[in-house]
Write a structure and sequence with these properties.
Length: 81
């Protein structure tokens, strides 16, 4: 899983829940299968947008809003973890 340190923690969590190496392989395969179409879509959008700066700024703003909601307790499901 190529999502930084969170991917490592997710894999360790699978092992802690008595998962096997096969379970980790399945999780990694599913992650790659799900994220590949999104990467292709983002590539097409990047090619179509004339101003790359607006695309980069909008992605940073989206991540900031989602992160603020996450850490600010905006999502009820996160606090139950």
């Amino acid at each position: 899983m190529a999502i930084g340190p969170v991917g490592t923690f997710a894999l360790l969590c699978i092992l802690q829940l008595h998962g096997s190496v096969l379970d980790i392989g399945v999780a990694t395969t599913l992650f790659n299968a799900i994220t590949t179409p999104g990467a292709i879509f983002r590539g097409f959008v990047t090619d179509r947008v004339r101003t790359k700066k607006a695309l980069v700024v909008s992605s940073y703003v989206t991540v900031a809003v989602v992160s603020f909601g996450w850490w600010g307790g905006g999502y009820a499901g996160v606090t139950e973890l």
